[in-house]
Amino acid sequence: MIHAVRWARGRLEILDQRLLPGREHFLVCRTVDQVVRAIKTLAVRGAPLLGVTGAYAMALARDRRAAARKLIASRPTAVNLRWAVERALRAPDPLEEARRIHAEEIERCEAIARHGAPLVRGKAAITICNTGALATGGIGTAFGVLLRGKARVYALETRPLRQGARLTMWEARKSGLEACLIADGAAAAVIREKRIRAAVVGADRIARNGDAANKIGTFGLAVLCREFGVPFYVAAPVSTIDLACPDGPSIPIEERSPRELSDRFPAYNPAFDVTPARYITAFITDRGIIKPREIKSCR
pTM score, two decimals? Predict the structure, then answer.
């Protein structure tokens, strides 16, 4: 099993995802600032895994309230980070709470995979970004569904940082998932020519009305699926639901450095987009299959 973060000898060790698939190297973090730097630079990423990482970081903190503010601000779109950090902040023993959160995420991933696998069993499916162990700490959300369902997967490369090409394909090779990499611009052609029967993606935040934020390009994929009549599923634990957030426009969208796109020309580089609830067939959660209209009452 892939271990993306681990607590060892009083420190947090983070598998540096920036170096994958070429090199497997763990960053050693002894301070909260080191963890914040790892989060901001995408050495560690993925909404559930950011929550686990943030909770462990609280065990390194001397000033826990100041640490919580820094950690929450490091990635504003992913609600799991705030949720887990605040939970560790309230706990008498942050390390024990972090270990509990980590174990719960592993269990949630297994539940999501169990509920979602029948929806994609043996089918050709498409996904975006990375939603496996590198994003969750467990088997994964969308990735776990696809793996347990033995789907034939077409993975979008996910520009500009190519999480699909670098991370999803690396995990697929390690896990034995049948996967084929495709260019982001090939999605429509692949859906039509390869007879895609389902799309399964993750989420970084789900609003009360069922709108969902995920990696940039997800909204476009949802629109294509609507055009071709392909079910579009969002796989995420209920901890990703933010009932305090009324709708998609209220979700803060992180904008990353233009240099990720070009060091010569002006560039607009949002890290996420929001898929309106009307494009989502259903949410695959650790509590079962939930329709968008049911989100407001499921936590």
Answer: 0.95
